[in-house]
Design brief:
Elements (H helix, E strand, L loop, with lengths): L1 H14 L8 H13 L4 H30 L13 H7 L7 H15 L4 H20 L3 H5 L6 E2 L7 E7 L8 E6 L4 H12 L16 E5 L5 E3 L2 H15 L1 H4 L2
Antiparallel strand pairs: 1-2, 2-3, 4-5
Length: 249
């Protein structure tokens, strides 16, 4: 119990706030700091589990009082990525820092400039997919469904992507939305569609062609869309090469 109390106090000291103001990002940073001090996966899992149980206790015993006094509910900051039921199986997943993410994509970009041929087309496609996830938060399955005609470069300040296969709430079916091409996505897509995507040579497919094509031709003769597994593997390979410490967990 003494060790758990030390962990609770350590988290609050790290977050520099009361219990009801601690957020998932604080837990991520606290666990990352513990990792940098040498704490192993098992220890970090125990730390996250201790915090999860602590907040469950506070919510059950004192949640009403905290809400009445502060006007805010007590919400456990150990979210779905670090919740205890996952710990034994996959360990604690600490998101990479902004610097690490930039190092990953910087290394990826530099490598693309030295690559040619068929390998370049596939690597560039995977880079574009990863950049869409990073920059505008598209889901993987949303990305798979994108077609060339879903990009409207003259709409809005930066252009917009028409996401036709968004995740609907409570089984309501696909939810469509327009995603502004912020954070350099407009320049990324301009490069991809002007210089790289035409090399796949889909002929008359036009706007119905997959934005991120597969390496294999579809039954109709054109290039089908790269599947989610393929795009995940592309990102995983990049992480293993340019961010190996994070890839190892």
């Amino acid at each position: 119990m003494g060790q758990q109390r030390a962990w609770w106090g350590g988290l609050l000291a790290f977050a520099r706030g009361p219990v009801w103001e601690v957020e998932p990002g604080d837990v991520d940073g606290w666990l990352a700091a513990a990792r940098d001090r040498g704490a192993g996966t098992v220890t970090r899992g125990q730390m996250a589990q201790a915090v999860y149980r602590f907040y469950a206790f506070v919510e059950a015993r004192h949640g009403r009082w905290v809400r009445e006094v502060t006007g805010r509910p007590v919400q456990g900051p150990v979210d779905e990525f670090n919740r205890p039921r996952r710990l034994a199986r996959v360990g604690v997943r600490i998101p990479p820092s902004a610097g690490e993410v930039e190092a990953l994509f910087g290394g990826w970009r530099a490598w693309l400039s030295r690559t040619s041929g068929r390998g370049f087309l596939v690597a560039a496609r995977d880079y574009v997919a990863g950049s869409l996830w990073r920059r505008v938060g598209l889901r993987i399955n949303e990305t798979v469904c994108l077609e060339v005609g879903d990009w409207y470069p003259r709409k809005g300040a930066h252009g917009v992507l028409h996401v036709r296969c968004g995740k609907g709430a409570r089984g309501s079916g696909p939810w469509q939305r327009l995603v502004p091409a912020i954070a350099g996505v407009d320049r990324l897509l301009a490069w991809w569609l002007a210089e790289v995507r035409p090399q796949f040579d889909d002929g008359p497919a036009g706007g119905r062609a997959a934005l991120l094509p597969s390496r294999r031709r579809a039954p109709g003769g054109g290039w089908g869309a790269a599947c989610a597994v393929t795009l995940r593997q592309g990102l995983a390979g990049a992480v293993a090469r340019w961010l190996p410490a994070w890839s190892a967990g």
